[in-house]
């Protein structure tokens, strides 16, 4: 974490991060979580890095493809809870691209499930 201090007159300002972060949690199926862990080990990256790359890949898709991904059927037989640290700017861009009928946590579940199950996709 980067810490910066600014002194202006008698006022001291401390900035802990240049870009604000938020921890978001969402549920995915345990099988999807297992595949995500296997993919993480295979590519030697963290699950968070994979999920962030999936979000960025989703944002780069054209609108028709994004709608197709959000319509991907997802069932949760036994769930796992995932937590991801995301910058506010990336989260804002993501929420902007997700249609209002999908809460962003549901959209994340669908995106992660889609890209994890579609092994033809190049995640990184």
From TrEMBL:
GO molecular function, one term: DNA binding
Keywords on record: DNA-binding
Designated name of the protein: CopG domain protein DNA-binding domain protein
């Amino acid at each position: 974490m980067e810490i910066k201090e600014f002194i202006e007159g008698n006022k001291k300002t401390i900035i802990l991060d240049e870009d604000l972060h938020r921890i978001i949690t969402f549920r995915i199926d345990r099988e999807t979580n297992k595949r995500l862990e296997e993919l993480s080990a295979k590519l030697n990256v963290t699950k968070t890095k994979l999920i962030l790359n999936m979000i960025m890949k989703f944002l780069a898709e054209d609108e028709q493809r994004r709608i197709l991904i959000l319509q991907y059927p997802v069932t949760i037989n036994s769930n796992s809870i995932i937590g991801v640290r995301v910058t506010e700017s990336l989260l804002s861009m993501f929420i902007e691209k997700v249609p209002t009928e999908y809460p962003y946590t549901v959209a994340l579940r669908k995106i992660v499930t889609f890209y994890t199950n579609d092994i033809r996709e190049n995640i990184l």
